[in-house]
Amino acid sequence: MSAARPAATYVSTVMVNDANGGAVCVVDVTAETATAAVVVTIQGLDAASGKFHTLLASASLASVATTVLNVHIGMTAAGNLVANQQLPRLVRISAVVSGTNTITFSVGCSFTS
User: Fold this and answer.
1) Contact by Cβ (8 Å): 37, 97
2) Architecture label for domain 3-112
3) In this predicted structure, what is the pLDDT of residue 84?
4) How far, in Å, CA of 89 to CA of 42, rounded?
5) Could you give the CA distance from residue 4 to residue 32 in angstroms, rounded to a whole number?
6) 3-state DSSP call for residue 28?
7) Domain spans of the chain?
8) Rounded to the nearest 10 degrees, how much is the dihedral formed by the CA atoms of 83, 62, 109, 79?
9) Are 27 and 107 in contact (CB under 8 A)?
């Protein structure tokens, strides 16, 4: 769901990757102010430590646009858009909003095989 969000860190629930493949996440920024931006990060859970680690972080998104993030083994890595690595079984999405105003966005993810 798209919503206007002020500066803060937003974290999704933990998602289970039963597809044993990768993920495609679509970040849709639909409204922004001159001083707001968001960085969206796909994070995997390390089973041994119980800590999340970054698989892919977007660039700072500060204008109305749709950005597609991909994590999958065998893909050609592309800065802030594509990560060539295996997606772990447990993942989450983190969105860090910065600035003094709000930014309206949504993030939707699908698992791929």
Assistant:
1) yes
2) Sandwich (2.60)
3) 97
4) 13
5) 9
6) strand
7) 3-112
8) -10
9) yes
Counted residue by residue, the chain has a size of 113
Rg of the chain, C-alpha, whole Å: 14
* pLDDT tens by residue, 48-96: 999 999 999 999 999 999 999 999 999 999 999 999 999 999 999 999 9
Residue 45: partners with Cβ closer than 8 Å, 6 or more residues away: 14, 51, 52, 88, 89, 90, 91, 92
pLDDT, tens only, 16-57: 999 889 999 999 999 988 889 999 999 999 989 999 999 999
Which among 8, 44, 39 has a CA at the least distance from the CA of 23? 44
Q: What pLDDT score was predicted for residue 34?
A: 81
Tokens representing 107 are 């993030």
Q: Choose among 111, 77, 95: nearest CA to 12.
A: 95
Give me 18's structure tokens.
């039963």
pTM exceeds cut of 0.90:
yes
Report residue 20 as tokens: 């044993």
